[in-house]
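Side project, low priority. Logging it here so it doesn't get lost.
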Amino acid sequence: REIEVLQLVSDGLVNREIGHRLFLSEETVKSHVRHLLAKLQARSRAHAVAVGFRRNLIA
């Protein structure tokens, strides 16, 4: 699910929009983003997207 969230972040969606797309609450999306930042050792959403591309997690 976190990879799906990362893909939607890379598409420029905000938490509320991601929640609507994936049928999740905004708080759940925020939680997924926090976990992504920690796992990817990223400092921001943009940094997480860059790391995701480099690691071929998203296209």
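Brief comment: The chain has a mean pLDDT of 98.
Revisit when time allows.
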